[in-house]
Amino acid sequence: LKYNESHEWIRINGDEATVGITEYAQSLLGDLVYVELPEIGDEFAIGDDACVVESVKAASDVYAPIDGEVIEINETVSNDPALVNSSPYQDGWLFKLKITDESQLAGLMSAEKY
Amino acid sequence: MAHIRFGLKNLRDVLNTVGGRSVSKRFLAQDAELKRTALYDFHLAEGAKMVPFAGWEMPVKYKGGITEEHLHVRQQVGIFDVSHMLQTRVEGKDRKEFMEKMVVTDIQALQDNQGTLTVFTNDQGGILDDLIINNTDKDYLYVVSNAGCADADLAHMKATEASFKKSGGDVKLSVIENALLAVQGPQMVSVLQPGVDFDLKNLPFMTTTEGKVFGVDGCRITRCGYTGEDGVEISVPQSGAEKLLASLLGSSQASVKLIGLGARDSLRLEAGLCLYGNDIDATTSPVEANLTWLVSKTRRQKLDFPGAEIIVDQIKKKPSKRRVGFVSSGAPIRGHAKIFSEDGSELIGETTSGCPSPSLKVNVSMGYVKTPFAKNGTKVKIEVRKKMIEGEVSKMPFVPSKYFILK
Question: What ipTM did this prediction achieve?
Answer without folding.
Answer: 0.91
